[in-house]
Amino acid sequence: MIPAILFHGLITGAIYALLAVGFSLIFGVARIANLAHTAFYMAAAYIIYACTSLMGMNLYLAVIISLIVTTALGVVVYRLNIRPVKESEPTLLVMTIAVAIIFQEMIDLTAGTDYVSIAPFISGYITLFGVKLLHQELLTLGISVAVLLAVLLYLTRAKFGKAILAVAQDAEAASYLGVDTERVNLIVMIISVLLAAVAGAMIAPLLILNNLMWNPALLTLLAICIIGGLGSIKGSIAASFILAYTETFIIFLLPMGGFLKGAVAMAMMLAIIVIRPGGLFGVRLE
Amino acid sequence: MNITVQTLFQNFKREILPLPSRVILITFFLFLLFIPLITQSSYVLRTLSFACIWAIYAAGWDILSGYTGQFSFGQAMFFGVSAYTCALLNLQLGFPPWLTIPIGAIAALAFGLIVGVPCLRLKRIYLALATLTFPIMLMGLVFAFPEQSGGELGFYDITRLSPSPVVNYYVGLGLMVFTALTLWRITNSRLGIIFQAIREGEMTTKASGIDITRYKLLAFSISGFFSGLAGGYYAHFMGTVGPTTLSVTLSFEAVIFTVFGGIGTIYGAIGGAWILTVVTEYLRVASEMRMLILVILVVLVLLFMPGGILRWSRNKLEKVCPNCKQRNAFNRKSCRVCGAPL
Fold it and tell me: By the CB < 8 Å criterion, does B140 face chain A?
């Protein structure tokens, strides 16, 4: 049982981390709380489903199309919906929820509300320490970790990545030093949506898809980002694994765990907000 | 008697007729009052009763989030707490609706205080997310203890207010008018000014010697009371209460209705709820596209009328006098109070 919990927690945590880093990045840099973040994750999964199951395309092609189309959608949403209302927080929250519902309804119109699933990218399994691990699960884990590392390296090593971190620290000072903050915001939106799309594409074969899946994912994501500190990348990675292991423990050990995992995540988030509003890693509260 | 009627008439002529927004409001109210004379179809009255429920619920949200700036993303907690309280009191103890609805609203008020305490020092998005958690945790409890809470199916066979849809509708309308008048009264008083001061700058308000803790808790409890009132009426109107009364969607609806109509105005919350409920019902013919059309409508309003559709219309119909800040109809050349050119 213990190795099973360890492995499943690790995989769930890696996917959560992909989502949470994207959300934290756009919040930390552009101060945009993008509640449609998990809608992009859902869109990526559904585009793969549409390309493979409905149009009979090659799987690898479908994944590439899915990443490109989702990112393009992200840019369109940023330009059309997010940027015009960025300054007013309530409007922004309602707007991003509205965008997520538009995605949900578009999927309803094209693919329906039934639960659907995608065939795994690679089949087969190996047994490690008595745990049956699908090859797909290992692939998901590997790609998630690789993409995360790539993004972290880009942010800390590349020149533009450093500019992004500078804007996150102080947008005004960064713009005095010649950083085009508007361009940074756009690039960060692209990175953020791309991360959500990778997460969606990688988790798609392991999940049952339906057009409401953005909703529970969003709640988990918000809990993670609060626990780690909104806008903190290190914090959100750590919190992803903390929450993933907590959830896995609850599901494996409690009889009604499936119902309670959401409530436990919310309780953890509330405790952090009340005791340590900056999150575990102490982000400064505005 | 004759004098009162005369003063009433004069007040009407002086205070209501010159302003298009007030004329529209009075016409709308009279229209709602006489609808049962036009149609008694239970379908129409049911839709309108729902509009009343959402209007009360959204107005409760507006006083907390729109006026006081304490952004609540979990307004369904008040609705659900009150609806469940009413259901339990009615089914376990046999209390009649006229007793359970006020008790339910007061339970939601108390819950507002409980929630308000941990939320006192939180701001903006942190507050929104903290409030979001409460209904989800309550829902987790409902699912975890199905024997006591009814579980997924909830409670049913709750006493209906009345078998007649007309009576149900009038009770809802009465509650809505009560909510609107009370909240207008509050927002136009000193209390309303303090609420807005807290929204605009907590520090400054504190520095002016105002105990903001007290007023924030007051805002939470007023908001809880009215959203709870809607929940109690809902329980006895539907006859069933389930976990949907605590859903995230319901919490978002309060936000959507109010931001659509105009945040921080009360009339925006009520009008927004009415417009969206009636439009949603009307779009039933295109049921597949209904939600999509509705959301696109909301997006368009947010983009082109950021203050909400009703505030936007009001500003088109009325001008504010630059001299004395009184409102005037859009077609006037000079101010009706001080005569300054507009």
Answer: yes
Cβ proximity of A31 and A181 under 8 Å = no
Please report how many Cα atoms fall inside a 13 Å half-sphere around the Cα of residue B334, on the Cβ side: 5
CATH topology of domain A2-275: ABC transporter involved in vitamin B12 uptake, BtuC (1.10.3470)
**For A218-261, how does the pLDDT look when each residue is reduced to its tens digit (9 = 90+)?**
888 888 888 888 778 888 898 899 888 888 888 877 766 666 77
Quick one: pLDDT band at residue B2, thresholds 50, 70, 90?
Answer: low
A151 within 8 A of A21, measured Cβ to Cβ: yes
**Chain A residues close to B118, C-beta within 8 Å:** 270, 273-274
CA distance B55 to chain A (A): 18
Min Cα separation A266/chain B (Å): 5
- pLDDT tens for B197-222 read 988 888 898 898 888 888 989 999 99
- The candidate with the shortest Cα–Cα distance to B230, out of B284, B173, B182, B153, is B173
> Could you identify the residue written with the tokens 């009433």?
B8
CA nearest neighbour of A204 among A66, A27, A94: A66
pLDDT of residue A259: 67
Please give the average per-residue pLDDT across A193-221, as a whole number.
86
CB contact under 8 A, B137 and A230: no
DSSP state of A210: -
Q: What Cα–Cα distance (Å) separates residue B110 from each residue in B69, B81, B113, B218?
A: 20, 10, 5, 11
Within an 8 Å CB–CB cutoff, is residue B250 touching chain A?
no
Is the Cβ pair A273, B122 closer than 8 Å?
Answer: yes
Of A200-214, A260-274, B159-173, B202-216, minimum mean pLDDT range: A260-274
The C-alpha R_g of chain A, in whole angstroms, comes to 19
Distance (Å) from the alpha carbon of A191 to chain B's nearest alpha carbon: 23
pLDDT tens digits for range A122-160: 777 777 777 777 788 888 888 889 999 999 899 888 888
Q: What is the ipTM of this complex?
A: 0.80
Tell whether the torsion through CA atoms of A75, A81, A87 and A90 is positive or negative: negative
What are the phi and psi torsion angles at B30 (to 5°)? Answer: -60, -40
Q: How many CB atoms lie within 10 A of CB B33?
A: 12
pLDDT in tens, B161-180: 778 888 888 888 999 999 99
B302 touches chain A (CB under 8 A): yes
- Cα–Cα–Cα angle for B226, B228, B230, rounded to 5 degrees: 75
pTM confidence score: 0.83
> Can you give B246-294 as a three-state secondary structure string?
HCHHHHHHHHHHHHHHCCCCCHHHHHHHHHHHHHHHHHHHHCCCHHHHH
More confident residue, A18 or B136: A18
Q: Which of B62, B119, B129, B257 to mutate to test the interface with A (most CBs of A within 10 A)?
A: B129
**Could you tell me if B118 and B126 are in contact, meaning their C-beta atoms sit under 8 angstroms apart?**
no
